[in-house]
């Protein structure tokens, strides 16, 4: 087996493995075909106890991208129980150790459900202070929580109900630095629900370029300018 791409302690790697296993086990119990529409009360109540964490291989790629672009300020739209957030935090904390680093590392995470945010905080506490210290968790609707104090953003993770992907991108866009990366999940599986986002990103002069990667369900990497 090849070594983990993450610079992380054996304890954190074990925690991540455990959280991904729990998430996948839970996902296998969900009847995905019969779910109500996203962004409805019925859908949200079914999802209230669900991890639906970003898959491990996708998280590892995200971590690598953050290390590569030297990201210090990251926004996560959709935090749930905080699994992907741990990868984001590990990467920005590691980037901050570079000799040239001046900006304080920060992961601006946002989650609508207080009960999910509470569990996310517990997972970060288990992961350790290095993780906890760089996360700025904003509990509430991202259409409110992402309207202020973002600074210059290097990376945006769109792991959110699809109707919220474009609103989240538009809120963060004025703060994206040239070369910033946006990742959107499940772009092949949910291609029909991403049409508005694709049209916006693909429009001439949008400042964005994207590529769809053949991960499970598809994942888009969008580069700004
Ligand atoms: C796919 S999950 C995120 C999974 C997480 N990134 C991970 O890998 O562990 C999407 C989350 O977005 C949250 N969410 C839904 N609508 C939201 C909104 N308007 N503002 C903030 N979060 C929202 C949901 O409650 C859900 O927990």
Automatic annotation (TrEMBL):
InterPro entries associated with the record: SAM-dependent_MTases_sf, SAM_O-MeTrfase
Gene source species: Penicillium nalgiovense
SUPFAM superfamilies, alphabetized: S-adenosyl-L-methionine-dependent methyltransferases
Transmembrane segments: none
Pfam families per UniProt: Methyltransf_24
Coiled coil residues, start to end: none
Record flagged with keyword Flavoprotein: no
One BP term from GO: methylation
Keywords: Methyltransferase, S-adenosyl-L-methionine, Transferase
Name used for this protein in its record: O-methyltransferase
UniProt keyword S-adenosyl-L-methionine, yes or no: yes
Family: Belongs to the class I-like SAM-binding methyltransferase superfamily. Cation-dependent O-methyltransferase family.
MF (Gene Ontology): O-methyltransferase activity
């Amino acid at each position: 087996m090849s070594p983990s791409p993450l610079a992380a302690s054996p304890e954190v790697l074990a925690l991540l493995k455990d959280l991904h296993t729990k998430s996948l086990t839970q996902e296998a119990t969900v009847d995905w075909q019969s779910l109500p529409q996203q962004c409805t009360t019925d859908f949200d109540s079914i999802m209230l106890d669900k991890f639906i964490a970003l898959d491990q291989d996708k998280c590892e790629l995200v971590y690598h991208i953050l290390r590569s672009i030297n990201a210090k300020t990251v926004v996560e739209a959709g935090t749930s129980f905080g699994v992907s957030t741990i990868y984001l935090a590990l990467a920005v904390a590691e980037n901050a150790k570079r000799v040239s680093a001046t900006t304080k590392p920060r992961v601006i995470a946002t989650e609508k459900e207080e009960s999910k945010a509470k569990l996310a905080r517990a997972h970060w506490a288990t992961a350790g202070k290095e993780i906890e210290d760089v996360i700025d968790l904003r509990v509430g609707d991202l259409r409110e929580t992402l309207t202020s104090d973002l600074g210059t953003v290097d990376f945006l993770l769109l792991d959110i109900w699809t109707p919220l992907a474009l609103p989240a991108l538009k809120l963060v866009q004025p703060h994206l630095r040239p070369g910033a990366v946006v990742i959107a999940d499940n772009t092949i599986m949910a291609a029909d629900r991403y049409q508005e986002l694709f049209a916006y990103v693909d429009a001439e002069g949008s400042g964005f370029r994207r590529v769809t990667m053949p991960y499970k369900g598809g994942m888009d990497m969008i580069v700004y300018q």
